[in-house]
Amino acid sequence: MSAFIQQQQEVVETAIPSGLEVENVVETYRALTVHCLQAGNYLRPSSFTIETLVLNFVLEQHINVDIEISNWALLGVIIRLAFCMGLHRDPSQ
To answer: Which residue ranges make up each domain of the chain?
Structure first.
C-alpha cells in the first residue's frame, strides 16, 4: 500500500486526471477492506484482523486528510482488540 501511495504522489505531480483515477482505486480498496472485516467478524479477532484494521485506518487517514474523530476511535478499537488477543504480553513466556 505504501508503494501505491508513493506512485499516487508521483502521478498527481505529473498529471491530474490520472490522480483522480488512483483515488478511485484507493476508495475501492478501502471499501473492500471494510467488507472483509465485516465478513470476518472483526470484533472476534483472528489472524490478520489487526493488520487489516491498521490497513483500513491508513486508508481512512489517506482519504480524509482532515482530522476526524472516527479515525481515532478506530485506532482505539485496534488497540483494544490487540490487547484482547494478548499481543501486549511477553512472547518468551
So the answer is: 2-84
Q: How far is CA 76 from CA 17, 30, 57, 64, 82, in A?
A: 36, 19, 11, 18, 10
| 8 Å CB contact between 77 and 44 | no
Q: Which residue has the cell 513466556?
A: 93
As a whole number of angstroms, the distance between CA 55 and CA 50 comes to: 9
| Segment 9-30, tens digit of pLDDT | 665 555 445 556 667 777 888 8
Place of cell 471494510: 34
Kindly report the number of other CB atoms within 10 A of residue 9's CB atom. Answer: 10
Give this prediction's pTM. Answer: 0.71
- Report the pLDDT value the prediction gives residue 35, as an integer from 0 to 100: 92
